């Protein structure tokens, strides 16, 4: 296993006013696979991603990441710097690693082309559509050649077709570069299309409702298949049962 999440619990607040967010969460993520995390709004998905990114520590339990992989993270709202251009935003991680300027420029140019952003390198984020900003955020996290990519709603607020195009693009990159990815999503279809494993969380405090094995994920033709719809329905029922139950 690449990542082992073992009996993890987390709360916010003080002793007197504790808000329990994650309750005894355990699952494992295989190398080079995609794990989708889905659950009701506010249940604790982003908090779980924060723990995986090492930005926060659990109250109890542990998260073990094998080796010392390079981790790329895309937090909600893409985290782009508005005063930096597309090229500067994408090259940020490399600049921080003190890579030389020529190498950064080469890598950034290649990523800009890969993400279909050619001609926009000198633009600022505010001059781009939401979908383009999300591609910049994806390019920035890919620039450091992450072995693990952690993403919080990276494709939200896109129209359906742009979202599907970016999902396809992401799948191709993830396969080519053998990335282990975790994606937090509100979208049942996205979880089923991308997630080799789908972790279904309950209302807060989030417990595991089910861990769904989804071997067909990663196949670009999956969306059009009968089985895709039955998987989506199964997931919808799991989420609904939890809400009603
Ligand atoms: N730093 C914090 N301090 C206190 N409470 C917090 C903090 N961060 C998140 N919370 C609360 O913890 C709960 C879980 O938040 P989190 O963002 O993890 O949920 P989520 O499932 O990602 O939500 P959404 O689906 O709406 O993005 C929410 O009730 C939120 O208000």
Describe the overall structure.
- This protein is of the alpha/beta class.
- The protein folds into two domains: about 30-55 and about 150-245, 3-Layer(aba) Sandwich (Rossmann fold), CATH 3.40.50.300; about 80-145, no CATH class.
- The chain contains seven helices and nine strands.
- The chain has helices at about 45-50, 85-95, 100-115, 130-145, 160-175, 190-195, 225-245, and strands spanning about 5-15, 20-30, 35-40, 60-65, 70-75, 150, 180-185, 195-200, 210-215.
- Strands 5-6-7-3-8-9 form a six-stranded mixed beta sheet, with helices on both faces. It has a three-stranded antiparallel beta sheet with strand order 2-1-4, covered by helices on one side.
- Strand 1 (about 5-15) and strand 2 form a beta hairpin.
- Helix 3 packs across helix 4 and helix 6 packs across helix 7 (about 225-245).
- The radius of gyration is 18 Å and the shape is globular.
- The mean pLDDT is about 90.
- Bound molecules: adenosine-5'-triphosphate (ATP).
- The site of adenosine-5'-triphosphate (ATP) has 11 residues, from strand 2 and helix 1.
- Pfam families: ABC_tran.
- InterPro entries: AAA+_ATPase, ABC_transporter-like_ATP-bd, ABC_transporter-like_CS, ABC_transporter_ATP-bind, P-loop_NTPase.
- GO terms for molecular function: ATP binding; ATP hydrolysis activity.
- It comes from Desulfuromusa kysingii.
